Amino acid sequence: MAAVEREVGMNGLEKVVLRDGASACSAEVYLYGAHVTSWKNDKGEELLFLSNKALFDPPKPIRGGIPICFPQFSNLGSLPSHGFARNRIWALDTDPQLLPSPTSTAPFVDFIFKPSHDDFKTFPHSFEYRLRVQLGPGAILTLTSRIRNTNSDGKPFTFTFAYHTYFSVSDISEVRVEGLETLDYLDNLQERSRFTEQGDAITFEGELDRIYLEAPRKIAILDHEKNRTFVVIKDGLPDAVVWNPWDKKAKAMSDFGDEEYKHMVCVEAAAIEDPVTLKPSEEWTGRLQLSLVPNTHVGGSLDIPNAL
Ligand code: TA6
């Protein structure tokens, strides 16, 4: 029997656990940041990376899982790095406002975040941010964000966004990211200069921090050793960030183990190059769907089952 349970998590922070009941599939979401910190498959294997040194200590962000970067991706703006949605306690949304009730019986939880007066000082706009996290059959994990401008002063606002997903991998040097070939990207290690991807897949030999522009809806992350592929399907999110800090940057992060870079990769469905502008009462939807398939992939077109 599928279940949705509220539990006390790390450091007394509240979380919601989704279980599909028929298998060991599960997901965990903290009310702090509406932050997914765990996603397990039918074998009970953890699929997301969460640093052993992750802090559950608001307002510091949690290192790993799926931080939500809103209303600003990166630290290139007037807000803290990656905005403030991930640094706030969200509420459970008992009135998810018209989101069609899910067709399946898959367990889900709805969160809502509205900015405080304090937030208004740095981001002078009113909005309602609703997030649904749903654990579907076969451990398909779907995050649906709906952000509505509720300004009463007639003002539009603009934001950038990312689901900053940390995938758990066996060995970063054996990981390939497919689907981003030939795309232009902004290189965060070279003052965001623009380049064109030449590789037939992205592989990792050092720190990599790139924003791929107008990326396809489906992206694959192949873990050679575990013989499995993560499939990212994104809607409303044109860009994709790929990041591994490698050794030097790993050592510089106090909430990240020196060797942990070997076992994670971030592939982040995002809206960055063309920020989203909402007029009052307009609503934006950004959906992320994660699934895991065995490595039947033998090159050529991505033979990814359409999980939607
Ligand atoms: O998404 C990649 C990135 O922007 C990197 O540049 C690095 O800063 C990473 O996010 C982590 O950011 P955080 O603020 O969570 O430490």
Could you explain how this protein is built, in words?
- Belongs to the glucose-6-phosphate 1-epimerase family.
- With 308 residues, this protein is mainly beta.
- The chain has a single domain, classed as Beta-galactosidase, Chain A, domain 5.
- Helix content is 4%, strand content 41%.
- It has 2 helices and 20 strands.
- The protein has helices spanning 117-122, 246-252; strands spanning 3-8, 14-19, 26-30, 35-40, 68-69, 91-92, 108-113, 127-135, 141-149, 157-163, 166-168, 175-178, 184-187, 193-196, 208-212, 218-223, 228-235, 239-244, 264-278, 283-294.
- Strands 5, 10, 11, 13, 14, 15, 18 and 19 form an 8-stranded antiparallel β-sheet that branches. An 8-stranded antiparallel β-sheet has the order 6-7-8-9-20-17-16-12, with no helix packed on it. A 4-stranded antiparallel β-sheet has the order 1-2-3-4, with no helix packed on it.
- The longest helix is centred in the last third of the chain and has 7 residues, at 246-252.
- The radius of gyration is 18 Å and the shape is globular.
- Mean pLDDT is 93; it is low at 298-308.
- Bound molecules: 6-O-phosphono-beta-D-tagatofuranose.
- 6-O-phosphono-beta-D-tagatofuranose (TA6) binds next to strand 18 and strand 19.
